[in-house]
């Protein structure tokens, strides 16, 4: 038995391997940075401290500017000393800290040849910006990753240079992202790139862009943010060339301009069969009919490739006034269903087994856009009859529950056992099913309603759906409200009549609570009166 307060006596080689894996894997969102991990680990015991302090490569990989903004230089100097002569991975943002900006500038000016990774958020500190603008003119013998999307020196956005990036010498580069610098495609190292992020202010000629991509056989992720109209450059007499990228599993397009011309570029990229396509279209002007037709064609093309290569086990479909969001994948896929289409949601958030097709506009989508897109989706060689889980939200008045394409999707999803949705969408499904002989979602057993508290008449809408299933002889077995009772304002006691239906929610302490309908205590489901015993 290990005495209380003492660390478990792990062998140093095991500790070294564990910490090495933790440092090499980076810092996933929500977890401590590698620098914080090193600092805390060095305080566990004397043997661990010696191990951490003598492994300089760990400190070189952990230079996170977000944690080096102190007013004094003592901690920055300590981290730098511990890094020794190792290669350097630099990340984060200097923020308002003058000391951090000077620290970064000093490293770049004096030790640029040691930098392996430079991944910085928006840079507007004058001193650090000037240093970055200097080092991009110098050779980068060990640079593998250059992710500096924006540089804002005091005199405005820096103009594209007329010199070769990194003096044409960066043989190790695998990932590149910069608004300020056009990507130089003249070197033989282009073929080794794994991730490329471009801005169309550098590439608006589709032939030039496709030619660039065709020389990157190992490319795994490709992102382009479009701010200018791309040249059409395609005709039957002079078609665009194809770019075959057998390793490409993630594509992301973010454009504010007409989509139809960009569609012609994407149509000529042949990715891996298990690829994901993420389209974020936020044009200020409404989508034109040409845009809608191009989107439908592209959705059909890439969905056909994806579904032709694999089966899926889950489907996510959001149909809104200004958003069409389709995602699906296999059982091992894990993706965020928060509908967050922020800048961080890009290629990195897609796995090779996950397909995503998202169209989002600040203005409402044209009335026929949603119908056209689901029609294009249902016409692909779908293999949806094995899908077990469905996340569905219908939040647009432009779609009728009697839309043939929507009904066909519901009929195809014959193996669905669990649906995550909202009460209004349940009513939409019910309206689509009324008058039809076949039961919609015949194997459905579980309903999850994470947004039940957002609908004032939620109990009534849920009751209508459960009643219809009960009359059909396919009763729902489990209803998960997924909310604490304090946020469930309605009276759900009318569900008592559905004998053996299990209803779940959470008490104020976050504990999962279950009630089995027909147990004779219907008041338990009256959240309008907030039963005192539920407070835990």
TrEMBL record:
Protein name: F-box domain-containing protein
Family annotation (InterPro entries): LRR_dom_sf
Region annotation (Disordered) ranges: 329-348
Start-end of Acidic residues biased regions: 332-342
């Amino acid at each position: 038995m290990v005495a209380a307060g003492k660390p478990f006596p792990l062998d140093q080689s095991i500790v070294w391997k564990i910490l090495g894996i933790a440092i090499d894997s980076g810092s996933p969102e929500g977890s401590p940075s590698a620098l914080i991990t090193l600092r805390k680990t060095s305080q566990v015991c004397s043997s661990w401290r010696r191990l951490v302090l003598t492994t300089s490569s760990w400190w070189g990989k952990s230079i996170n500017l977000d944690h080096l903004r102190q007013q004094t230089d003592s901690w920055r100097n300590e981290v730098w000393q511990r890094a020794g002569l190792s290669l350097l991975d630099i990340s984060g943002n200097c923020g308002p800290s003058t000391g951090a900006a000077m620290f970064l500038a000093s490293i770049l000016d004096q030790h640029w040849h040691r930098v392996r990774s430079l991944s910085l958020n928006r840079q507007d500190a004058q001193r650090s910006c000037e240093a970055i603008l200097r080092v991009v003119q110098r050779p980068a013998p060990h640079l593998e990753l250059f992710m500096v999307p924006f540089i804002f020196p005091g005199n405005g956005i820096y103009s594209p240079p007329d010199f070769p990036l990194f003096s044409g010498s960066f043989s190790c580069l695998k990932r590149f992202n910069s608004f300020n610098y056009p990507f130089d495609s003249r070197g033989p190292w282009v073929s080794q790139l794994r991730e490329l992020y471009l801005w169309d202010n550098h590439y608006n000629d589709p032939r030039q862009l496709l030619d660039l991509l065709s020389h990157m056989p190992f490319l795994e992720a490709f992102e382009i943010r479009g701010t200018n109209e791309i040249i059409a450059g395609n005709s039957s007499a002079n078609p665009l060339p194809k770019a075959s990228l057998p390793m490409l599993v993630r594509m992301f397009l973010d454009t504010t301009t007409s989509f139809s011309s960009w569609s012609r570029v994407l149509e000529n990229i042949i990715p891996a069969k298990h690829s994901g396509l993420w389209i974020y279209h936020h044009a200020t002007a409404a989508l034109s009919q040409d845009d809608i037709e191009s989107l439908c064609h592209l959705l059909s093309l890439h969905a056909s490739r994806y579904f032709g290569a694999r089966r899926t086990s889950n489907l996510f479909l959001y149909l809104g006034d200004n958003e069409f969001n389709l995602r699906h994948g296999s059982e091992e896929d894990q993706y965020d269903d928060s509908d967050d289409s922020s800048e961080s949601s890009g290629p990195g958030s897609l796995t090779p087994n996950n397909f995503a097709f998202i169209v989002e506009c600040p203005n409402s989508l044209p009335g026929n856009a949603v119908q056209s897109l689901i029609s294009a989706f249902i016409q692909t060689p779908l293999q949806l009859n094995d899908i077990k889980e469905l996340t569905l939200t219908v939040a647009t008045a432009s779609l009728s529950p009697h839309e043939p394409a929507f009904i066909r999707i519901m009929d195809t999803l014959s193996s669905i056992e669990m649906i995550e949705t909202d009460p209004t969408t349940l009513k939409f499904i019910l309206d689509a099913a009324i008058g039809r002989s076949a039961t919609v979602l015949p194997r459905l057993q579980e309903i999850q309603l994470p947004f039940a508290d957002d609908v004032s008449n939620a109990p009534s809408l849920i009751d209508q759906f459960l009643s219809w299933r009960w009359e059909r002889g396919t009763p729902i077995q489990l209803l998960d409200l997924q909310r604490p009772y304090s946020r469930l304002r309605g009276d759900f006691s009318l569900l008592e009549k559905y004998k053996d239906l299990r209803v779940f929610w959470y008490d104020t302490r976050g504990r999962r609570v279950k009630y089995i309908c027909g147990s004779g205590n219907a008041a338990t489901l009256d959240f309008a009166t907030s039963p005192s015993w539920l407070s835990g």
